[in-house]
Amino acid sequence: MTPEFMLITFVLFLAGAIAVPIASRLGLGSVLGYLIAGIIISPLFTVMGVDILALQHFAEFGVVMMLFLIGLEMNTRELWEMRSKIFIMGGLQISLTTMAVMAIAMSFGQIWSVSLAIGLVFALSSTAIVNQTLKEKGLSRSDGGRSSFAVLLAQDIAVIPMLALLPLLAAPDLIELILIEVLEHTDVRPDDDHVAALTISLVEGLNGWQTAIVTFLAVGGVIVLGKYAVTPLFRFVARAHLRELFVSTALMVVVGIALLMTVVGLSPALGAFLAGVVLASSEYRHELESDIDPYRGLLLGVFFITVGAGINFSLLFDSFATVIGITVGLITLKVAVLLLLAVICKLQGADRWLFSLGLAQAGEFGFVLLSLTVANAVLPKGVADILLLVVALSMLLTPVIFILYERVIAPRFTTTQVQEADDIDSNAQIIIAGHGRFGGIVNRAISAAGYETTVVDYSSEQLKMLRKFGMRVYFGDASRPDLLEAAGISEAKILIVAIDGKDTITELVSYVTKTYPNVHVIARAVDRNHVYDLYAVGCRDIIRETYDSSIRTARSALEALGATRNDAQQMMNAFQEIDFEMMIETASLHDINIPIAQNEAFIAKINEMRDTWEPQLKDRMQAARSKKV
Questions:
Q1: HSE of 91 in the Cβ direction (CA atoms, 13 Å)?
Q2: Is the separation of the CB atoms in 461 and 436 below 8 Å?
Q3: Is residue 217's pLDDT more than 60?
């Protein structure tokens, strides 16, 4: 390991460690923090002579890992349900954007082959930035987020034919110019036959149908091996009880799949996603997620830094008006195309804008395609350099666009979306706000007991699926006062708050407890601190979403250690009593406007109680035991 390598690594990590926390604290998100870090260290890398493009290609493996983890979170049924979005919505987005960009480029005097190449490059969006930002902001499961992911997946699939098509667009005059330039700057002569490049390909030299067979065999191999071989492999490795061996095996699987996809001419990210979907039902799914996720985050961070560092500022300043004009024009054009698709595919409300704005940038595969166009004499290097700058700048602006959506567009749209909610004609006295993994179980249990419920949820895709099973559910934002009134909140006996978002839950509970004091509010708390927030705004029936499962897990552990079911239950009852008493006693000191870590009175009370609480808890737990465990 050379000092130069260690210096580059140190600078990358230092820049990220400083810029990202500052950006996150300012509400800008981690992606924009990494991009800014790259811009800041760009002059230093230039002085050091760092090959940023090579570093970027290495860091792109973070995108491969990200797609693998996304695949792990899905399953084949869920992917099948998205098929129309992937192929219809994704296909239309790629086609319409390519044709629109091609038409504009030809109107500016470019020949059709160059215009088509530019259109294909600009049709793609950034899988890395969009998916990471959607995940950070909790928008991945929204209709707009799912539609965005479907289009991104279609684009990853489309990269394959693009890689095959672009070399066919080569301009003969440009090929001759490139050859002359190479010969002038090297000692290679046209009759040299000893110069060769190391390439690994399973499809080189094959005709079309042979390539197709090899490709299908590779994809089939990934599916079969993922389903029948990878799980036994992990089971074998797990017997060694060495975590580092399991991690290396997980990385080996991802790298191996990416390599296989690459040597048959497919996108490594697409292959990794496919493998993730196959392994989604594996018993080692969660272990794989926890092992690979740190490497994904690390490599994605480096990738974003290289995007920022790769911006050619001298070219930007020399061609400022041209670059900015193309960048703004590209984003505007893509927003227009995506808005049209959103209307056609009946995306509604804020989801329409999330989808349209989120995919308005060019993508990281644009770097790959532009390098290919220059190498194959499709685009002149001067044009490609300008386009590389446009791709990088559009990616740089994406986090800013998301901030614009989150702070300006979404709030306004939420307050004006009265007509888009369903007309609620239910007279049920139980209202359930949210029908996800938490609210769905609550609704099933209450309905099974013979009570009628009014279910309101903000995901039209989720409600469409529920209606197929005959469930009576309504679309709308349950945090809006007018929709609550339409749902019958003034006559309701119970409101069960099962929506996502800590702040949204707190605001809804606060409004209902103050405006409708006769309604019994049962609220979902995301963590212990959230319990204090909900208590402070007047809720007295608070359910921590992971508390009961944690208690049951501890009880099972005690049983495994030799306690009887009754003894284990009695001990956990004692724990719950002490925990409840402690929370009630400290709740009065909680101030919702002051972070707990800065609430001196609260911290002092906890420290004061600890000396008596812990011995008291141990005494009660011991008293609950009828025999030694």
A1: 6
A2: no
A3: yes
